[in-house]
Automatic annotation (TrEMBL):
This is Large ribosomal subunit protein mL38. It comes from Scylla paramamosain (Mud crab). Pfam families: PBP. Keywords: Coiled coil, Mitochondrion, Ribonucleoprotein, Ribosomal protein, Transit peptide. Its main location: mitochondrion. It is found in: Mitochondrion. InterPro entries: PEBP, PEBP-like_sf, PEBP_euk. One of its GO terms (cellular component) is mitochondrial large ribosomal subunit. It comes from the Eukaryota. Gene3D superfamilies: PEBP-like. The keyword Heme does not apply.
């Protein structure tokens, strides 16, 4: 279309013929098709965009216990005063001899940005979408989970680390802090483990009516089932979910015996 004038000589009989190629004068009238962008196609396919109010995210988690603002400011000022009085703290830091209390660091993380970081991780891996649809929550109770592989080896469960099936052969050890009279339900589920329907999950463990943080006091509704990801299905997401109960629940009709 934009080629400049060129002349080609063709041998036609005994007389050369000149062929001239020029830009068409109708080039401005060519109709250009306008295609939607990738974002517009996603919005057209995404049913959530059609009714944002209907599919708006809903927080189903426990409320955050915030201390009074005055009490929080006073504790921070008191902490700063204690640091300023400690003259050896800066010297030890300059010498490289300062040691941090990792338990205190963990406690500060749990009461600070930790819950929101866990929510972002769960949202990134599709945990909320596959288990609760449009609902989500910010974890307020931290679970300390570990598997006793043998007498000398313990496999801790973090947020997204890999646990082999042979390491998770027995019931895990779970600890969490709560009020001594509170009731809880603990569930271990696999969103990727249902081999018959991809829209359903596979239940691996169900313990209800847990008193305080003692999982051994709970009622086992579904016995523990060792993870068994078939070959070729990739990594499976094993999710521990802790639910708060307002009162004791009768789980007798939901009880499933181990085959």
């Amino acid at each position: 279309m934009w080629a400049a004038k060129h002349s080609f000589s063709l041998l036609g009989g005994t007389k050369p013929v000149s062929l001239q190629v020029t830009r068409s004068k109708w080039w401005k009238k060519i109709i250009h098709n306008v295609y939607p962008t990738l974002q517009e196609r996603f919005e057209e396919l995404d049913h959530k965009q059609k009714d944002p109010e209907l599919y708006a995210p809903v927080n189903i988690g426990l409320p955050k216990r915030r201390p009074p603002r005055r009490e929080l400011l006073e504790s921070r000022l008191q902490h700063l005063k204690e640091l300023r009085k400690n003259k050896t703290l800066e010297k030890e830091a300059w010498k490289g001899n300062l040691k941090l209390d990792l338990d205190q660091v963990q406690a500060d993380w749990e009461t600070g940005t930790g819950p929101h970081q866990l929510r972002v991780l769960a949202q990134h891996y599709g945990i909320f979408d596959h288990l609760f649809g449009n609902a989500y929550f910010v974890p307020r109770i931290f679970l300390n989970i570990s598997y006793d592989y043998d007498e000398d080896t313990v496999s801790p469960v973090y947020r997204g680390n890999t646990i082999k099936p042979k390491e998770a052969a027995s019931t895990p050890d779970i600890q969490f802090h709560s009020d001594p009279d509170s009731l809880w339900t603990l569930i271990l589920t696999n969103p990727d483990g249902n081999l018959l329907d991809n829209d359903h999950e596979c239940l691996h463990w169900f313990v209800g009516n847990i008193v305080g943080g003692d999982t051994s006091s709970g009622e086992v509704v579904c016995d523990y089932l060792q993870p068994f990801p078939p070959r070729g299905t990739g990594y499976h997401r094993m999710v521990f979910v802790l639910y708060k109960q307002h009162q004791r629940i009768d789980f007798s009709k939901y009880r499933r015996e181990q085959p």
